[in-house]
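Deliverable D2.4 — example input (structure tokens):
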């Protein structure tokens, strides 16, 4: 891997596990559902969610972005990573959901830096966030690509 100014040469392959556990509450699900204009009663009403087979309110599928970005903060703020957030452009985001997120989940995330690819004076950094519940069972896998622009 060639060196990109500022980006740590050993960034690829790093793992970050220090993100706090994210407690999913009914109110957080309702707030997020309102913000994204989700319409399903299962996001707002416990009886509606239970009638669909969920144990509690179910989060919109895009809710996982909150958890993954909270975990990414550890990686972004790591002074040894060499990421200047003022030069970051979010290039791509994909999710593979293993099961729905529901109120009462306690979610932990491990961030893996899967690749760092030099692009001119910058780099494309791809991370994978593995989100698990309180039993260690997979909930969602997020893959994110950040373009770290080089200095002009």
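Example output (designed residues):
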């Amino acid at each position: 891997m060639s060196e990109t100014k500022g980006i740590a040469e050993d960034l690829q392959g790093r793992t970050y596990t220090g993100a706090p556990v994210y407690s999913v509450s009914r109110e957080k699900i309702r707030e997020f559902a309102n913000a994204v204009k989700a319409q399903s009663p299962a996001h707002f009403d416990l009886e509606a969610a239970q009638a669909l087979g969920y144990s509690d309110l179910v989060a919109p599928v895009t809710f996982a972005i909150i958890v993954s970005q909270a975990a990414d903060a550890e990686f972004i703020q790591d002074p040894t990573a060499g990421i200047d957030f003022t030069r970051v452009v979010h290039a791509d985001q994909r999710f593979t959901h293993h099961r729905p997120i529901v109120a009462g989940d306690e979610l932990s995330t491990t961030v893996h830096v899967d690749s760092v690819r030099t692009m001119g004076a910058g780099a494309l950094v791809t991370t994978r966030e593995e989100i698990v519940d309180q039993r260690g069972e997979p909930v969602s896998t997020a893959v994110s690509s950040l373009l770290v622009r080089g200095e002009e």
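The beta strands are 15-16, 22-23, 88-97, 106-119, 122-132, 138-148.
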